[in-house]
Sequence to fold (285 residues):
Amino acid sequence: MKNVLCAALGRSILCSLILSGLLLLTGWAGAATSYRVRSGDTLGQIAARAGLSVKQVQAANPKLRGKTVVQAGWGLTLPARPGAATQYRVRSGDSLSVIAKRYDISLSQLLRANPKYAGGKPVQVGVLVKIPARTVTASSTRTPAATVRTASTSSRGDGWLWPLSRYHTISSGYGERTLEGDSEMHYGVDIVAPLGTPVRAARSGRVLESRPDFERGWGWTVVIEHPDGWITRYAHLSVNLIRKGELVSQGQTIGRVGNTGRSTGPHLHFGTYLRWNPRDPLGLY
Fold:
């Protein structure tokens, strides 16, 4: 159905919106995924590609407890990115505490999402438990003057173009941030801009991904690989205007600012990686 619609509608906004709705209705969002380790992978790179911390990947894979080295051919479970609401089917040996730890949320958060267990009622094998979406609280990204700032985007001559031509306000920077009392790593910067603002490719390259990634909370997202090992991610888009495999030029419009996925309002998540090792985007301007 997806191919038929795209063939009929081409690269139009309507095509993107219809596909987004279809994927949501058919249950795209919220599932853990499997990943087969490839030669040259590191645990940090795998976690960064999935938008997770190393700790979160370790928690979902008992054989990684206390380990940071992975071997080619290993099958790993990548949990739903925190903030992407999902459901979990209880297995033998599970308790609410175990489930909360697996998804890197607090027991109180899990109980609020499943109030029937608040009185200490045990969970039964086979039942579905709701895993709550963790949202960025207003106090952590919107209101404090210390976290809402204007990026200096003058070029250092290294060929990087700011992805939004007239908007430079950063609502959540690169690094540790607090979500509902818990800390997590934010691999990028959130740039506030009106819905529909054109998003530009920071550099020329080849499109690795152009899809709705609600599993990880990115919403509609574009990932571009650049010739010298750099990779850029543009997330929470309202519309994707390029396709996987396409070659794009620096400054080409690749999508529009949206509020899809794990988002508290219209903004662009802009992430930069060097061979999938996360780097602070602001260090490039």
